[in-house]
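User: Hi! Is it possible to get a structure for several chains at once, not just one? Here's what I have:
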Amino acid sequence: MDSDVIVVGGGVVGLTTAVTLAERGLRVRVWSRDDVTATTSAVAGALWWPYRIEPAAEAGAWALASLRVYGELAADPERTGVRWVAGVHADTALDALGPWAREVPDLRQLAPEEVPGPYGAGLAARLPLIDMPVHLAWLRGRFEAAGGVFEQRAVTGFAEPAARARVVVDCTGLGARELVPDAGLLPVRGQLVLVENPGVEEWFTAADEGAGETTYFFPQPGRLVLGGTAEEGAERLDADPATAAAIVARCARVRPEIAGARILGHRVGLRPARAGGVRIEAVPLPDGGRLVHHYGHGGAGVTVAWGCAERAAELVGG
Ligand SMILES: Cc1cc2nc3c(=O)[nH]c(=O)nc-3n(C[C@H](O)[C@H](O)[C@H](O)COP(=O)(O)OP(=O)(O)OC[C@H]3O[C@@H](n4cnc5c(N)ncnc54)[C@H](O)[C@@H]3O)c2cc1C
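Assistant: Yes, the chains can be modeled jointly so their relative placement is included. Here is the combined structure:
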C-alpha cells in the first residue's frame, strides 16, 4: 500500500482533513470526483458563522477551533484567501446565540437605528470572510507541500480506496447520500449573484435559519457576492433568473447602490444538510481497515472545517 489514508472528497472538508493528516506525517491521497473549483465549497460566500448546522453544541466548539485557525491565516490574505472583515448580522440577538458566541471577540449588540435596512436589532462583528476559490487552491497547495497527492477520480463505493489504504475518510458531502448510502442527507439549494462592487466594504446578513429567502452580501476581491436562498430538497443546479432578480432587489433595500451594479455571474450550490447533523464516525471495514465518515456540514462547512478535521483525525489515529 502506497498510502496510509485515502480521503475521498476534495471540498473544504476533505482538503482541510487531508492537510491535518498529512501534516501529522501520514501518507495521504485525496480522491475527488470534481476539480476543487467545481465543488459546493467553491460556491460558498463564505463567512465564518454557524448557520444551518447541527448538532449545536459540537458545531459551536468546532467553529471556535476553526476561528482560531482562520485568524492566523488572515495574516496572509492574498495567499490564503482569508480576511478579517467587519459587518452586521441583522435581526440577531446576542443572548439568543449559543455559548460559543461569548468566545467570539468584538461581537456587539446594535440598537435598531444602527442597523441598515428594514430590520430590528442586530449584531456588529468582525469575522473571517473567506474567498473560497483562492482558499481551496491554497489548501490543495498546502496539502501537496506536506507530501499529499491529489487525484481527480470518482468512486462508486469504499472498497476501491480501502484496497489501497488502511484508512479511508469519507468527505463526499452530498455524495454520501448514494455512496454510504445515507437517506438522512438533504440538499439545501443556495443561489448567489456576483456583481461589480459599487463600493461596499462591509458584509451584511439577514438570514433567519428557517427562511427560504435570505438577504446578504459579502465583499470579496473583484466582486460583491449577493445572497441568497435556502430551498430544502431542491436539486436544480442552474440559476433561476427570477430568483436572481429578487436577490438583487432584497440586497438593494439595504444598500440602494447594489440595484445598478453590473452582474458578473451566478452561482448555485447544494448545502449537504443531514438529519441529526454532521456525521464524524469511524466504522470497521471487513479486512481490518477503518472507514471514517465525515460529512453533512450543512450551511457551515467552511465555518467548522478545522475543528471537524481535528476530530476526524483523532478517529483516523496513527
Ligand atoms: C450558496 C451557498 C453559500 C454558502 N455559504 C457558506 C458560508 O458563508 N459559510 C460556511 O461556512 N458555509 C457556507 N456554505 C456551506 C458550505 O459550502 C458547505 O457546508 C461545504 O462546502 C461542504 O463541504 P464538503 O467538503 O463537505 O462538500 P463539497 O464541497 O460538496 O465536496 C464534496 C467532495 O466530494 C467529492 N465527491 C462526491 N462524490 C464523490 C464520489 N462518488 N467519488 C469521489 N469524490 C466524490 C466531490 O467531488 C467533492 O470534491 C454555503 C453553501 C452554499 C451552497
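The longest strand covers residues 263-274. The mean pLDDT is 96.

User: Great, thank you!
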